[in-house]
Structures
1.
Amino acid sequence: MYCPNDECPDHLATGLRAEYRDEVEHCPYCGTPLVTDAPSVAVAADGNPERPPVGDDETMEPVIEATDVTEVAVIKSILDGAAIPFVTIGEDQFSAFPGAFAGGSIFNPRARGVVFSVPSRMADEARTLLEELADPAEDT
């Protein structure tokens, strides 16, 4: 069940459509009767769900720092897939493996991490999605 109201405070705050269990008949935020089919989601030119707009006065909150090239790509993919807008700090200077040579790459011990920040209203959701990356479970 989904709220079809484009003016719903929850939809305006998150830019997403919340999904409710079948026994919930009205949106808890605006009182609109719920519908069974999800309203269509706008898709951006890159094929990902369109990101909700970030206001000029909205604060951004750091949620994770990555020091691995692969981890940076995975975090971007996760946030893009969830339509959570983000900015990176330090990515332009991030170079874990500068100066490749014929025998491989040289690790750069002075490389700094890339910090991902998201709108404060979406920080908890982003942290939940990225929880496994920030604190991976140990395989025993």
2.
Amino acid sequence: METAHGAIEFKGLHADVSAGTESGAIRIQSVAGHAQAIAADGSIEVDLIPGATTLPQEFTTRTGDITLYLREGMGADVRIETSGEISTDYTLQVAYDGTREPSKKAVATIGAGGSMIEAGSKRGRIRLLRGLEPLTKAN
């Protein structure tokens, strides 16, 4: 699904999803499948379910924020790139190179590891948080 400026939201699907937008927000909640979201300047919020897919998942925005909620029992290998702030409930290894953009690259192994999750924003904030309960409303 693609849009220029409008928001995109997927909720409770048992399918693969792909979303793209210029400046709208993308929200993916409780999707049991492969997820990919690309936004030029919009924000991306994702609630990932354990065991939904073994395929790599990618979430990218140029200047928007990305929030990833990983539910209990999730096993994943996470790669984050941004020059913005990184907030997390997990242990990350962060490398900084002030001569490049994005200047921070972080990696984390969640649980026993598993499918690859990549989140990247040139300047946006990236949050990697524990998602104990399904999200119930849009921000």
